[in-house]
Write a structure and sequence with these properties.
Largest sheet: none
Low-confidence stretches: none
Strand content: under 5%
Helix content: over 70%
Number of helices: 16
Shape: globular
Structural class: mainly alpha
Number of strands: 0
Order of helices and strands: HHHHHHHHHHHHHHHH
Distance between the termini: 50 Å
Length: about 450
C-alpha cells in the first residue's frame, strides 16, 4: 500500500511538473481559475437584482441605460486592453520605455473620454424619444441613470489600459481577480441603499466598485515595479501607430456594441418586461462564455504576441490551428449539456424573490436560443485574437459592420415569429457568420493550413 501510494504521489508530482513547464497551459488554467473567481462574484449581481427588484419598468430603465454606458465604454476599454498587448510586447522586445507609452494612452483618454461622455448626455434624450417606446417617466429615469453611470466610460477604459499592460507582462492574477473587489462593493451598496435609492443604488454601486478596481491595478503595477508611468498627452510615432491601429478596432467595437443596444431597443417594442427578460437570459449566456474566454483569450493574446515577434507567422498559424481543435472539442459538449438542463438552471437562478414565476419559461427559451451560438462564438474569438496579434484590426472592423446590418435584419424578421427569443436567435446566427468571415480572412491572408 505504501509503495502504491508512493507511486501515485510520484506520478502526480511528475504530472504537476510537466504542467508547470508548459507556460501557456499553466497560465491559461490559473488565469481561468482566478477570472472565474473574479468575474463569478460579478455574475451574482444580476441574480441579486432579480431577487430584489424583479421584472419592472424600473429594471427595464436601468438595464437599458447600463447597456448604453457599456456600449460607450465597450468601444474603448476592450480595445485598449487587447490592442495594447501586442504593442507592449513589441516595445519590450525593442527595449523601449513602456511607462511613457502607457502614460500617453492614459493621458489622452483622460481628456477625450470625459468630453465624449458630456456630448453623449447632451444628445441622447431626444434620440431615445424617437427610437424607444418608453413612457415619459421611464425615459426620464433612463436619462438620470445615464448621468450617474457616465463615469464608467473613463474608469473602464483606464482599467482596460492597466489590465492589458499587466497581461502583456504575464502578470495575469491582478487583472483576473480585480473584478471581484468591484462586485463586492457593488453588492454592498445595492443591499444598503436599495430601499432608499431604488435602482439608483445599482448605478452608484457599479461606479464606486470600478473606481476601487482602478486603484488596485495601479497598486499592482507599482508593487511589481514593472515601470514608472509618465503621464503625457504628447503624440509620438509609436502612439500614432497605436491610435491608428486601435481606431479600426474602435470603429469595429462601435458596430459590435450597437448590436446589444439594437437588441434592447427592439425588445422594448415587445412590451413591458421584454428588455429585462432579454437581459437575464443574456447574463446566463455570458457566464459560460466568460468562463471559456476570460482566461484563455487573455493568455493566448499575450503568448501568441510574444511568439509571433520571436518566430514569425508560421508559429502563429500552428498555434491557431491547435487552439481551434481544443476549444471546439471542449465547447460542444458544454453547449449540449446547458441546453439539456436549461430549465432547472433557470429555475435555480431566478425562481425566487420578486421574480415572476410566469416569466421563467420565457427566459429559458431565450437562453437556449443564445446557446445555439455558443461554439461558433468561442471559436470565432480565437481568430479575433490572431488578427489582433497581426494588428489586422481593419478586418475586424469590416466583419463588425457586416454583422451589424445582418443583426438588424435578422432581429426584425425573427422577432415576428419568436418574440424576444427571435432576437437571441439572431445573435447566434451572426456568431456563425462572424466565425466564417474571420476564419476565411485569416486563411487568405496567412495561408492557414
Amino acid at each position: 500500500m505504501n509503495e502504491r501510494g508512493a507511486s501515485i504521489t510520484k506520478a502526480l508530482n511528475g504530472f504537476w511538473l510537466k504542467l508547470r513547464a508548459k507556460s501557456l497551459v499553466w497560465d491559461t488554467l490559473t488565469t481561468t481559475f482566478l477570472s472565474t473567481i473574479g468575474k463569478g462574484i460579478g455574475f451574482l449581481i444580476p441574480f441579486f437584482i432579480a431577487f430584489w427588484f424583479g421584472v419592472t419598468s424600473e429594471t427595464d430603465a436601468f438595464f437599458f441605460a447600463y447597456g448604453l454606458i457599456l456600449f460607450l465604454s465597450g468601444i474603448f476599454a476592450p480595445v485598449v486592453e487587447s490592442v495594447i498587448v501586442s504593442y507592449i510586447a513589441e516595445a519590450r522586445a525593442k527595449s523601449e520605455d513602456v511607462g511613457r507609452f502607457v502614460g500617453n494612452v492614459l493621458g489622452l483618454s483622460g481628456i477625450g473620454l470625459p468630453a465624449l461622455a458630456i456630448l453623449f448626455l447632451l444628445v441622447i434624450k431626444p434620440v431615445l424619444l424617437v427610437v424607444t417606446r418608453f413612457d415619459a417617466q421611464a425615459l426620464n429615469l433612463v436619462f438620470w441613470l445615464l448621468v450617474e453611470t457616465a463615469p464608467l466610460i473613463i474608469l473602464l477604459t483606464w482599467t482596460g489600459v492597466l489590465a492589458g499592460t499587466l497581461n502583456a507582462y504575464k502578470k495575469f492574477a491582478f487583472p483576473a481577480l480585480s473584478p471581484a473587489f468591484r462586485a463586492v462593493i457593488n453588492l454592498a451598496i445595492i443591499f444598503t441603499f436599495k430601499d432608499i435609492w431604488g435602482v439608483h443604488a445599482i448605478a452608484w454601486g457599479y461606479v464606486i466598485g470600478e473606481a476601487l478596481r482602478l486603484i488596485i491595478l495601479f497598486v499592482a503595477i507599482s508593487r511589481f515595479d514593472l515601470f514608472s508611468i509618465s503621464f503625457s498627452i504628447k503624440l509620438n510615432a509609436r502612439l500614432k501607430e497605436f491610435l491608428k491601429t486601435a481606431s479600426y478596432q474602435v470603429l469595429g467595437m462601435v458596430a459590435v456594441g450597437l448590436n446589444p443596444i439594437v437588441d434592447k431597443t427592439m425588445a422594448s417594442w415587445l412590451g413591458k418586461g421584454s428588455v429585462s427578460v432579454l437581459y437575464y437570459a443574456d447574463i446566463l449566456y455570458i457566464i459560460p462564455v466568460t468562463f471559456m474566454t476570460t482566461g484563455l483569450m487573455v493568455t493566448l493574446l499575450s503568448h501568441w504576441s510574444e511568439r509571433f515577434y520571436k518566430f514569425g507567422h508560421r508559429r502563429l498559424n500552428e498555434d491557431v490551428k491547435k487552439a481551434v481543435k481544443v476549444v471546439g472539442f471542449i465547447t460542444l459538449p458544454m453547449m449540449l449539456l446547458l441546453i439539456l438542463f436549461h430549465q432547472p438552471i433557470v429555475k435555480f437562478a431566478f425562481g425566487r424573490g420578486a421574480f415572476a414565476q410566469a416569466r421563467l419559461p420565457e427566459v429559458g427559451w431565450v437562453w437556449v436560443c443564445y446557446l445555439c451560438g455558443f461554439v461558433p462564438y468561442i471559436v470565432g474569438r480565437l481568430f479575433v485574437q490572431a488578427h489582433l496579434v497581426l494588428k489586422n484590426t481593419k478586418i475586424l472592423l469590416h466583419c463588425a459592420l457586416y454583422l451589424n446590418f445582418l443583426n438588424i435584419f435578422l432581429n426584425y424578421i425573427l422577432m415576428k415569429f419568436f418574440s424576444v427569443a427571435g432576437i437571441a436567435l439572431a445573435t447566434s446566427i451572426i456568431s456563425v457568420f462572424s466565425l466564417l468571415f474571420l476564419a476565411f480572412a485569416f486563411n487568405r491572408i496567412r495561408g492557414w493550413k
